[in-house]
């Protein structure tokens, strides 16, 4: 839920930040603190989601009922799904089941872990590749722009980045399909799947990955560029320049390490946007991921299934944010 | 001798303002066109005028859609609701954030609560948030989308306002007013917020960009407007099957959304106040 919803660069990277720790605090303790904090935030999200689903008018048993089903049938199914037990009991079972990979049962009575087990790796592959592309391209472009501040390259890169960051993923996807699939016939426009449910060819991944990555590259180029510009004003960089160190050495040894925590936080924030955008992009390219599962879940009013998807994506995002915390803590030598 | 000098100085000071106008203009023109669109449409949006996915020409300048309806007419009609909804979301989020942000600067406890909410929401992708609210509110339609966009946008917007309000809240005259026994409401509305006009205007622009993204994505996922409504995002979804036969049925609304997102973003970044802009581009 970041990206276009957070306004400025500083706003976007202002994630939950580890509190300044005293020098007496050891590294392990600080790490445990970070973990606990992230885990707590995730738990709060899961409680919120469960409550939201619980407040649904009409439950899963109702939503999947067939025409002509008697009240007794409904009650039996409700019992089967465990919907007749107190909310607190169900909530406790759901939350305690999550760490063991038990996400409960969907409205149709299938275990949610089974429903997600095939499409989830596909979505993680799609999102992971898009994250890698975002990382590589935005760091490269951001550094390139930062080498000559105010130059033609800088202005071109910054302007383009600002232009594309607000584009919804499906608009980018349509443009890509038109250019690469219909007009030039270079890449496939739809994803065909193998017998095991994964994409049949790596070429089918290119367009979805690009559609996801392009708006995120727009965001992250600006973050990289801004972080480098901030770091360039730091006294140790200035003194390195005055000492006459070669430009590339100043860049790799003095500028980049200082800017790293901000860059990591910015790109970590992209994870949420990538996983959210994946739902939309998968629809366009007919990609076999959780997007199609979600679309079905919303039509079926399958609250438990949606909650399961939120739990998984929340956990993934938590993991990536924690990674960014670690980069921040490592790059600052434990001074955070 | 002094008069021309001050005139020149004044002109120099006005120069960046002209730049702002130039960058805001495309968005204003596009919004005006989208609002006037339904009256300019040559055909009704819900009656077929050509064959399904007919190529451009004759009656329909941009061809037909999946039911043979005129793409141009639907394009002209399809922007008003998207933009009106986005404007409403941007206004609601900016209003709520202005109040909460100023309150948070005066009362740190409130600020901390809002900050924690933003931390939690960061773990929930926007699309999932929309689906979740749409699911919990079956008949909500457009209002469910508005609710989702507002709930998910406010915590981020509050951060921006709180950041801008903190120095104002710490300034002497606010303390003087507080000591003078002014109520909290008066401090927020009369003392703090008027000093944040530029920030709030920029925030409104940024929230509008974000709202266009969310409302369009919801339309694409068919959570908001329902067929046969003409809506740019919905048109893309409905006609993607016939993209080979009449690309314009998909391309035209995509271009419309793309242009809207880009021009509004251009306008929003032009409105960001000088001091705040450094934070945005930091160049």
TrEMBL record, chain A:
InterPro entries: BPD_transp_1_N, MetI-like, MetI-like_sf. GO terms for biological process: transmembrane transport. Residues 1-22 are annotated as: Disordered. The keyword Transmembrane applies. It is a multi-pass membrane protein. It is found in: Cell membrane. Keywords: Cell membrane, Membrane, Transmembrane, Transmembrane helix, Transport. It comes from the Bacteria. CDD domains: TM_PBP2. Residues 120-328 form the ABC transmembrane type-1 domain. The keyword Transmembrane applies. The chain crosses the membrane at residues 39-57, 124-147, 159-182, 202-221, 255-285, 305-327. GO terms for cellular component: plasma membrane. Gene3D superfamilies: MetI-like (1.10.3720.10). Belongs to the binding-protein-dependent transport system permease family. PANTHER family: DIPEPTIDE TRANSPORT SYSTEM PERMEASE PROTEIN DPPB-RELATED (PTHR43163), PEPTIDE ABC TRANSPORTER PERMEASE PROTEIN (PTHR43163:SF3). This is ABC transporter permease. It comes from Streptomyces alboniger. The lineage of its organism: Bacteria, Bacillati, Actinomycetota, Actinomycetes, Kitasatosporales.
From TrEMBL, chain B:
It is a multi-pass membrane protein. Residues 83-268 form the ABC transmembrane type-1 domain. GO terms for biological process: transmembrane transport. Keywords: Cell membrane, Membrane, Transmembrane, Transmembrane helix, Transport. It is found in: Cell membrane. PROSITE patterns: ABC_TM1. GO terms for cellular component: plasma membrane. Pfam families: BPD_transp_1. InterPro entries: BP-dependent_transpt_permease, MetI-like, MetI-like_sf. Belongs to the binding-protein-dependent transport system permease family. PANTHER family: OLIGOPEPTIDE TRANSPORT SYSTEM PERMEASE PROTEIN APPC (PTHR43386), PEPTIDE ABC TRANSPORTER PERMEASE PROTEIN (PTHR43386:SF25). This is ABC transporter permease.
């Amino acid at each position: 839920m970041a990206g276009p919803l957070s306004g400025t660069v500083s706003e976007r990277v202002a994630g939950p930040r580890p509190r300044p720790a005293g020098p007496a605090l050891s590294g392990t303790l600080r790490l445990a603190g970070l973990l606990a904090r992230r885990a707590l935030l995730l738990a709060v999200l899961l409680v919120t989601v469960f409550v939201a689903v619980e407040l649904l008018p009409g439950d899963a048993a109702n939503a999947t009922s067939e025409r002509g089903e008697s009240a007794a049938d409904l009650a039996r199914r409700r019992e089967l799904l465990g919907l007749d037990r107190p909310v607190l009991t169900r909530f406790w079972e759901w939350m305690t089941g999550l760490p063991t990979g038990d996400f409960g049962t969907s409205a149709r009575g299938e275990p949610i872990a089974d429903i997600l087990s095939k499409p989830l790796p596909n979505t993680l592959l799609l999102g992971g590749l898009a994250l890698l592309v975002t990382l590589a391209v935005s760091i490269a472009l951001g550094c390139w722009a930062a080498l000559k501040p105010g130059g033609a390259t800088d202005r071109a890169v910054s302007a383009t980045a600002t232009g594309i960051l607000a584009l919804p993923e499906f608009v980018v996807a349509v443009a890509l399909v038109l250019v690469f699939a219909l007009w030039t016939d270079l890449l496939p426009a739809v994803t065909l799947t193998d017998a095991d449910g994964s994409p049949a060819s790596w070429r089918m991944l290119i367009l979805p990955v690009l559609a996801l990555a392009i708006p995120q590259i727009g965001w992250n180029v600006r973050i990289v560029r801004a972080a480098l510009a901030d770091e360039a004003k730091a006294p140790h960089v200035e003194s390195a320049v005055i000492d006459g160190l070669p430009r590339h050495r100043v860049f790799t040894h003095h500028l980049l390490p200082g800017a790293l925590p901000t860059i990591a936080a910015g790109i970590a924030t992209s994870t949420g946007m990538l996983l959210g955008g994946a739902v939309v992009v998968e629809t366009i390219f007919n990609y076999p991921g959780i997007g199609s599962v979600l679309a079905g879940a919303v039509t079926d009013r399958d609250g438990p299934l949606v909650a399961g998807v939120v739990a998984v994506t929340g956990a993934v995002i938590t993991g990536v944010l924690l990674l960014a915390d670690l980069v921040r803590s490592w790059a600052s030598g434990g001074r955070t | 001798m002094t008069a021309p000098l001050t005139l020149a100085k004044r002109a120099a000071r006005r120069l960046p303002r002209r730049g702002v106008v130039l960058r805001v203009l495309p968005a204003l023109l596009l919004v005006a066109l989208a609002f006037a669109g339904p009256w300019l449409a040559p055909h009704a949006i819900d009656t077929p005028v050509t064959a399904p996915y007919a190529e451009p020409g004759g009656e329909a300048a941009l061809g037909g859609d999946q039911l043979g309806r005129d793409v141009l007419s639907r394009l002209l009609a399809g922007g008003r609701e998207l933009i009106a909804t986005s404007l409403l979301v941007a206004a609601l989020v900016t209003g709520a954030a202005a109040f909460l942000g100023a309150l948070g600067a005066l009362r740190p406890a409130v600020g901390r609560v809002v900050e924690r909410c933003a931390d939690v929401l960061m773990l929930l992708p926007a699309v999932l948030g929309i689906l979740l609210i749409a699911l919990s509110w079956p008949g909500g339609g457009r209002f469910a989308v508005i609710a989702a966009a507002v709930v998910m946008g406010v915590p981020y917007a509050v951060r921006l306002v709180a950041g801008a309000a903190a120095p104002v809240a710490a300034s002497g005259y606010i303390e003087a007013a507080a000591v003078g026994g002014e109520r909290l409401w008066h401090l927020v509305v009369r003392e703090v917020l008027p000093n944040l006009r530029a920030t709030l205007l920029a925030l409104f622009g940024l929230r509008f960009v974000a709202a266009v993204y969310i409302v369009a994505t919801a339309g694409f996922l068919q959570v908001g407007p329902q067929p046969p409504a003409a809506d740019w995002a919905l048109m893309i979804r409905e006609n993607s099957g016939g993209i080979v036969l009449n690309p314009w049925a998909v391309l035209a609304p995509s271009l419309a959304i793309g242009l809207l997102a880009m021009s509004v973003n251009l306008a929003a970044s032009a409105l960001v106040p000088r001091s705040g802009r450094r934070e945005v581009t930091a160049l």
